[in-house]
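Reviewer 2 asked us to include a model.

Predict the structure of this chain.
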Amino acid sequence: LINGVNDVATESNSAVANSLIAQAKAARAWTYLNLGLVYGPMYNPNGTNDTQTIPYRTNSQPLVANPERATTAELFQYVKQDIDDALAGIPENVSNPCRFGLPALHVLMSYYYMYMRDWNNMLTYANMAWDEVLAQRGSVEAMLYNFNNFSYDLADDEVISDDEVNPKVDLALQGEDNLIGLTTHRENIMYRKAAVGGISTYPTEEYRNLFDQEKDLRYDLFMLRDNGFSTTISGETYSDGLQLYYFRDEKMLTNEGYTTSELLLLRAEAYARTGALPEALNALNLLRQFRYKGTTTAETDLPNGASLTQDELLEEILNERRRELPIGTYQHFLDIKRYALDAGKPWSKTTITHQLGSQTYTADVNGEAFILPISNIVIQLNPQWGVPVNEELYNPTLFQ
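Predicted model (structure tokens):
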């Protein structure tokens, strides 16, 4: 797109051309920042960041070979350059959040500094984005859905038993408007399709326990009991029976780009990390007004929030972030990697352990298990990298 627009740009259409190029560079920066941290380690401000990740390709000609794989440090330099270039021409408003506008670009900048652990700049750009979206929408109520006003068409006295499928599973969610299934719904700042997780996975006990089951409306609306996996093989039937699923991904359009609720949590985290605890608590409580049962702040505010230490409040904010973000996307994966740098904190894990039957599997968050390997097909098409083909049997591309 960048090359094509440049090929036809003239003085008379330069404003449109610059706007399109800016949006393309913003999208490229978003894509490569996420890909680089998935295919490489987390950026460490106290490290060398010299691990090679992926090539930051900027040439559209198919016969031009990919460049060398960028190191983590180089990746962040390229991303920052694209963001800076985009700022010169990005439009303040866009007709559809599938395209980058200025608020979304400032959220991207806040994310960039979050991964760099530069909390002051993270806060600066998160606040800029919040103020811009608020100015565009006119009110916080036009930026966030109040889940107190969401419902299913059920009889008021209908009792839902734990030993049957929850009838909400088959009912449409009724929201505050008819846009909750569209990219243009009020919480979307920059839309990218999220993975669908609720119908194919069972939320872990750890995830379920993050919710206040009595007061959190997300649990009430979306944590629903349905028939689990079942199959018949050689005449023998196996069934998981009734299982809890998390249906938010199916009941609303789920966004792994940027949302206003996520932006509030970026502000809350940045405030907390910089020691501004009252401001952090205010941002967290503002989101809770739209997610927890109640019509007054006394009902929805974090209990005893003002008495929490910095670490205690930050942990509450990070737990709220996990509850609010889509269950099946890359964000939590990258959060685990960045939290590992908060050594000794209650939200930080340096290893992840899973139990499968009697077998225990443990992986180091800072190790290869949290770096996606480049496919053998891609390796073979880029011999200039000098990367050996992966010959381990678990790699499915070995047989293609």
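The two ends are 32 Å apart (CA to CA). The CA atoms of residues 228 and 371 lie 31 Å apart. We have added this to the supplementary material.
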